[in-house]
Design a protein that fits this description.
Order of helices and strands: EEEEHEHEHEEHEHEHEHEEEHH
Number of strands: 14
Number of helices: 9
Radius of gyration: 19 Å
Strand content: 15-25%
Oligomer: single chain
């Protein structure tokens, strides 16, 4: 396991999806269609397969497996991060996912599932970076810039944990997607991008030798699926997640996407 990746989805021997618990133990949704939305820009949680363009990743596998266990079908849709929470809140989609951190503020707008992943946050930097090795050194150098996506947890960590608490600080450069911020980092337009361990692992795996991690973890966050308020899907999805945690499926999917999958290939 990479030293910078610490996930709560752990297990011993990961030899495939366990079949000891059956779908009959869970609620039966009787073939219901679940309209799910994601962004396809968050490796390795949700992204487009480089060869086929098909949406793949941990969250795709999770939701497809949950639906299979609940006797339901998934209809996948795409939407940008900046409209996703509001669209799910309004009922345009049944469930949303994009590495969405569970926060008290967001929980006033939409319903969350139980956490399916807990991950720490790190500073992703270029592999040849030698000007700073910690958050304190970065903050002290006025010539350094951080890339962030507006409205995300990483933006607020950049504002309040990395810098001075000023959301208008000119040292924060905003981008529409995580991918755009990483491209800016690679090009030298910014000097670090704050990311959770899952995304950091994905981008480093997809770009061997291009990036590294600087400093210590800057905190933890828990990811959950989001639902329209008072959705009747929350309880069944939570039950399926618990079953998958107990039978080893979550651990197997962690192994598949964080350690076995190599985007560079």
């Amino acid at each position: 396991m990479n030293t910078f990746t610490r996930l709560t989805l752990t297990g011993a021997a990961l030899v495939g999806l366990a079949a000891s618990a059956t779908a009959q133990e869970l609620p039966d949704l009787e073939g219901r269609t679940i309209v799910a939305v994601t962004e396809n820009a968050y490796t390795p949680l949700n992204f487009a397969d480089p060869e086929t363009g098909e949406g793949i990743g941990l969250e795709y596998d999770l939701m497809n497996e949950i639906a299979a266990r609940l006797n339901a079908e998934v209809q996948w849709e795409l939407a940008s991060w900046d409209v996703m929470i509001q669209a799910v809140r309004e009922g345009q989609y049944d469930v949303g996912m994009d590495g969405i951190t569970i926060t008290e503020e967001r929980a006033t707008q939409i319903d969350f599932s139980d956490p399916y992943l807990t991950s720490e946050q790190f500073m992703l930097v270029r592999a040849d970076e030698d000007r700073f090795e910690s958050a304190e050194e970065f903050a002290a150098d006025e010539n350094l810039f951080v890339g962030a996506q507006a409205g995300t947890t990483n933006f607020y960590v950049a504002v309040y944990d990395l810098l001075d608490g000023d959301e208008a600080n000119p040292r924060i450069k905003l981008f529409e997607t995580f991918g755009a911020s990483v491209a800016a980092l690679a090009a030298g337009d910014v000097d670090t991008v704050l990311m959770d361990a899952t995304s950091t692992s994905g981008y480093m795996g997809a770009n061997p030798g291009a990036f590294k991690v600087a400093g210590e973890p800057m905190g933890t966050e828990q990811f959950g699926f989001i639902f329209t308020p008072d959705s009747d899907l929350v309880a069944p999805v939570n039950a399926a997640l618990e079953q998958m945690r107990e039978d080893g499926t979550l651990a197997a999917l962690e192994q598949k996407w964080f350690f076995d999958y190599n985007a560079a290939q």
